[in-house]
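User: I'm putting together notes for a lab meeting next week and I want to include a structural view of one of the chains we've been expressing. I don't have a solved structure, so I'd like a prediction I can at least talk through. The sequence is below, exactly as it appears in our construct file.
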Amino acid sequence: MGRAVAIIDYGSGNLRSAEKALARVVAERSTGHEIIVTADPRRAASAERIVLPGVGAFADCMAGLGGIAGMVEALSDAVLVRRIPFLGICVGMQLLASVGREFGDHAGLGWIEGEVVHLAPSDAALKIPHMGWNDLHTVRPHPLLSGIADGADVYFVHSYEFRARDAADVVATTDHGGAITAIVARDNIAGVQFHPEKSQAAGLQFLANFLAWSP
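Assistant: Thanks for the context. Below is the predicted structure for the 215-residue chain, given as structure tokens.
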């Protein structure tokens, strides 16, 4: 399948918005990629890059992914063994964790060690979910942030946060009554708590960086 970017359809996620945003980047940057939305593990495994979106409860999303025969195995082989560039968005990023603690404890993919816990802002006046535009604070340089200014605004909608076990896995944070992980990355695996497909110029630049990323 060569230059295909597979957006995984497992019954959760803002698939069409992600598809349209990636297609716009492909057209504007002439990257030559084909954007596909698929629930077929074979098509996902043969793609050059993989995107896992996600909206909803952690356990439901994990169950949806696991409910597609062979999908977790295909993704694990592609990402962990063959080191295909991978991007998780929102709950798709949270599924990278070891465990999600939403309505009980539920095992995640465990690709980046950590836990997903309910937001607990220090200021009780701050609302949950954390919804709307907020700025990114770079923790460490990363190719996925190329051309994106420190403090750039991106769009968030979430009630739970990813707490990485290893601080070195955190690339950027945002603030909502305390620092919240906004981007994690390790090797060829990355995840964003915000929605790049809804984040206008900064989001499109991030997706362009993902399409060019050679970890």
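A couple of points you could mention at the meeting. The chain has six helices and 14 strands. The mean pLDDT is 95.

User: Perfect, that's what I needed.
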